[in-house]
Design a protein that fits this description.
Length: about 80
């Protein structure tokens, strides 16, 4: 599956616990990553500064669903299930 254009759900819903350029402490759940551009693409895609978490997330039907709303719901559930 290809990443859906203009989605960005996985750059908003999950928390990220490692540094992101411009967000040295990572980001909380539900807050858009500072590297998420206006067109909902990653501004640092392919660069070494991109967090390993992001590199490990691969588009797939389970996570991405059929639309952005479904992806947000699934990722929100994942976030709650994986909280320490
Ligand atoms: S949730 Fe899926 S479709 Fe949406 S931005 Fe992430 S990888 Fe792309
Ligand atoms: S670094 Fe890029 S891929 Fe990772 S959350 Fe931010 S915008 Fe999304």
């Amino acid at each position: 599956m290809q990443c859906r254009p203009d989605c960005g759900a996985c750059c908003i819903a999950p928390s990220i616990n490692s540094p992101i350029p411009g967000m040295p402490h990572g980001k909380p759940a539900g807050i858009a990553c500072i590297q998420l551009a206006d067109d909902n693409r990653c501004a640092i895609f392919g660069l070494p500064e991109r967090p390993a978490f992001c590199t490990s997330l691969k588009p797939g039907m389970e996570m991405c669903g059929e639309n952005r709303e479904q992806a947000m719901i699934w990722l929100d559930q994942l976030e709650r299930l994986t909280q320490p």
